[in-house]
Amino acid sequence: MVVERKMPESESFLSQLRGTISRSWEMTKLSYSFLKDHKELVFFPIVSSIVMLILIASFVIPFLEPDWFQVFENERNSNKEIMIGILLFLYYFLSYFIIIFFNAGLVSSTLIIITGEKASFSTGISLAVTRLPQIIGWAFISAIFGLLLRVIEKMGNRFGETVSAFLGTTWSLIAYFVLPTVVVEGVGPINAMKKSFQIFKSTWGEIIGGNISFALIGFLLMIPILFIAWISKELMPDNLTDFYHTIFFAVITVPSLLVILLTSTLSTIYSTLLYACATGHDMDSDIDVKKLQNSLGSFEQGNEPRPWP
To answer: Containing H/E element for 31?
Structure first.
């Protein structure tokens, strides 16, 4: 059961807003502290990125083969459209599956750690495997919705782009706690979506605040990278070989990817800690649990803490 939030009637909107921002920033700092103490958690997004690169290569490389590409070009337009549709959906499904699977491992490990137990990369993966049917179901639904948003966005006008952005943002907020719910309760994606929406109604301020915080962190970390890229581009002679251009691209790309991995990991840890607080889960670890619970002190603890797993 979700821990209900109770606000005093006399509390003003501005006071509530300040409290929400304060709690969100406190949770952001706690997420960073948590990752700093458990650096092994970053292996989940790293391995996920490597597998994603392999997936992308497996879809791109065949089209580089002249014989295979010629066979595809010789297909009738109707058959070609069907093939493109199947390949596109398959790519979306596998992409979502990879991301969701490794995030499930990260969520599992985070929940184990906050209950006072030790967790490793293999522990998280093992627990994610136990939720494989639910992960496949959620990846399937996410792929359908993602493809639908893509179709709406490609309508060729600003209206389509606006509708796609609105639906995508709404979906991401409502589905914010689907993965922790799947990992903890083992329910299907539909029931997990219902539970996620129920929790969202009590934590929407912290969710939005957390997203803004991590977007701001990512932006600030990217500023020096982009500045170095701009300076290097301006000072780089035009007659440099492709080799040096490749080196320049790699030097800029690697730190950018590291920033993305960092903010992605922090965001998943943040959502997991917020889920644990909002649902009254038992927390007993070397992180400052009291501070974590105080940062969400406006939650009325009406349920007994539920241990996991």
So the answer is: helix 13-37
Query: What pLDDT does residue 137 have?
Result: 95
Q: How distant is the alpha carbon of residue 239 from its chain centre?
A: 41
Give dist(CA 142, CA 135) in Å, integer. Answer: 10
pTM for the predicted model, two decimal places: 0.80
For residue 101, CA distances in Å to 174, 220, 263, 280 come to 19, 29, 18, 25
Q: Any idea what the Cα angle at residue 95 is, between residues 62 and 184, rounded to 5°? A: 155
5-48, pLDDT tens digit by residue?
444 444 555 666 666 677 777 778 888 888 888 888 999 999 99
Q: Return the closest-CA partner of residue 149 out of 170, 173, 165.
A: 165
Coil/strand/helix, residue 281: strand
| Residue tagged 């994606």 (tokens) | 189
Residue with tokens 């539970």: 195
Q: Measured in Å, how far apart are the chain's first and last C-alpha atoms?
A: 16
CA-to-CA separations, 251 to 46, 240, 254, 257, in angstroms, rounded: 18, 16, 6, 11
pLDDT digits 0-9 by tens, 170-200: 998 899 999 999 999 999 999 999 999 998 8
- Beta carbons of 87 and 81 less than 8 angstroms apart: no
C-alpha radius of gyration, the chain, whole number: 22
Residue 76 has what DSSP assignment?
Answer: -
